[in-house]
Design a protein that fits this description.
181 residues, alpha+beta, NADH Oxidase, 6 helices, 32% helix, binds flavin mononucleotide
Length: 181
């Protein structure tokens, strides 16, 4: 089990070269269905998503993610999940006294995104989280309201080369790291 998870998290990578193979809407629903189980503060689940997976809708979505000629690789992405934050919040009673309902939203959405990318990878679909989002344009384009500043682009990777991860070492992450005797 641990090995499977290890493999999944090491093989998940930001994909910047998608193939033109389309993704069925049903498959995207499966991914979101899995991501619903992400943890959130007071189980607030402050997320809702807007999905595009057709060429016309994807082109409109891309237009909100490529300002200043950024993220050109998205031209081949086959689906997008725009995460609206602070939506549908269900707070446990009493918790708002200690924390305003917005206090943990960024963490919660981060958890949700992690689940989305891993659930996608588990189904052979690659992803790239996109922070370069023009939220106002997004709302205007799809007649939505609310706050979205993060989108996951999805597609089947063109090649299956797994890049070496460039990450801090364990001792750089654990403040009180102890060397083995
Ligand atoms: C919040 C967030 C925003 C990101 N925005 C972008 C983006 O706009 N464009 C892009 O190409 N990658 C984006 N990325 C992907 C990161 O660059 C990538 O995850 C990081 O370099 C680590 O590489 P890996 O995901 O391949 O392990 C974003 C990632 C996160 C978590």
């Amino acid at each position: 089990m641990a090995e499977l998870f290890e493999k999944l998290i090491k093989e998940r990578q930001a994909c910047r070269s998608f193939s033109v193979k389309p993704i069925e809407r049903e498959l995207i629903y499966e991914i979101v269905d899995a991501a619903r189980f992400a943890p959130s503060a007071c189980n607030s689940q402050p997320w809702r998503v807007y999905i595009t997976c057709t060429p016309t809708e994807n082109a409109k979505m891309r237009n909100c993610l490529q300002d200043d000629a950024k993220n050109a690789f998205l031209d081949d992405a086959q689906a997008f999940i725009a995460v609206y934050k602070g939506e549908n919040v269900t707070l446990n009673k009493g918790t708002e006294k200690r924390f305003p309902s917005s206090h943990f939203i960024e963490y919660d959405v981060g958890e949700f995104m992690a689940y989305v990318t891993l659930a996608a990878k588990d189904r052979g679909i690659d992803s790239c989280i996109i922070g370069w989002v023009n939220g106002d344009k997004l709302n205007e384009t799809f007649s939505l309201s609310g706050k979205c500043d993060i989108v996951v682009a999805l597609g089947y990777a063109k090649e299956d080369n797994i890049r070496t991860k460039n990450r801090k070492s364990l001792r750089d992450v654990i403040i009180n790291y102890e060397e083995k005797e």
